[in-house]
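Would you mind writing out the residues of a protein together with its fold in token form for me to study?
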Amino acid sequence: LDYYTGAIFEVVAPDVNLGSVGGGGRYDDLTAIFGMKGLSGIGISFGLDRIYLVMEELGLFPDVEAEGTEVLFINFGDQEGLFSLKLANELRDLQVKAEVYPDSSKLRKQMDFANKKNIPYVVLIGSEEMKSGQFTVKHMHSGEQHSLSRIELLQHFTENASSDYGRH
């Protein structure tokens, strides 16, 4: 803020308690520190991540259900997330649409995400599951849960995921 010499502005989203999504102002002779004296200007910047959060909070993204994710891996932490990513990539190689939740948010939030996006299956792989090699697969519509090995999990989704998608 020290380099602004005139008007300073901030862009905020009403009805969202996030702070600013952008800002800027006028500055005279800022370029002097780079050896270009006598140049003034104005500048503005926006935070795309903040704009995305505002749009998400205001519900401005359309609900996309057709052709969506078939399997969501719940993220319990860095190690579990990396392990899940390897399995998700194996499923993708088998033409199954799989993703790993991007962070280790509370389980409820991740399950709500799966429900909101109409994702038929979630896979829960915590540290104990990584050690035992048995992974919990939950069918979101029926609530049924099964413990499957890696091979069984891959077989299960290549046989069932596409046919179950969208029947909820």
In short: Residues 8-57 form one domain. Residues 78-93 form the longest helix (16 residues). DSSP finds five helices and eight strands in the chain. The longest strand covers residues 20-28.
